[in-house]
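Treating backbone geometry as a discrete language has practical consequences that deserve illustration. The sequence in question and its structure tokens are set out directly beneath this paragraph.
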Amino acid sequence: MKVTVVDARKEHAPFIARVILTAHRSHLERCLWDFLVGGTEAECLRFLEALATTSQPHWAHLSTFIVAEVEGRPASALSGYFEGELGTGTPSLREAIAEASQAVGRTDEENAAGWQRAGSIIYVAPEHVPEAWVVENVATLPEFRRRGLVDRLLAEMQDRGRDRGATFADVGVLIGNDPAQRAYEKAGFEVIAEKRHPEFEAVYNCPGIRSLSRTL
């Protein structure tokens, strides 16, 4: 099995959209993007593809991703970034959502309704200090799982964080996704905090999110 790790390219956009949706759904039926976009899965993926290719970079942007290709086919991916870096914070994401919405024909009213459905995630969202190297949007296509692709991508992304001057990395996991938590702990991460909230649980059917960290 020939595996190559590459920076995400524009032609990866449909794959990256699938990775974002899969990663955020985790072990749940619906996630932030399902609630925000509404409609069908195809509509959600179309929106995420537009979001990944906006002019403004952000934490779900194509430019933050690396991809593991198996025999030339994209199979697994994850993103890494400094949250405090210009262009990757939550305000930039909101601007990018507006741009992506315009690209796919979503109205301001639809976006407002989407935030109303999805907004309880703010109660459990992990908090990162500006110098944290954040790893996020980790997912592998089902047919390529259990082949060590995420381990390889995690190692590569941690090296990139070190090269950027980071001394520690953060990752978040939804409470209840025990396989993902074990994979991160195997890679040297330890649970440092968790956030729970009843409003989030009522919508997402999940108590909250755990934060894990490790030195680099």
Remarks:
- The mean pLDDT is 95.
- The CA atoms of residues 21 and 101 lie 16 Å apart.
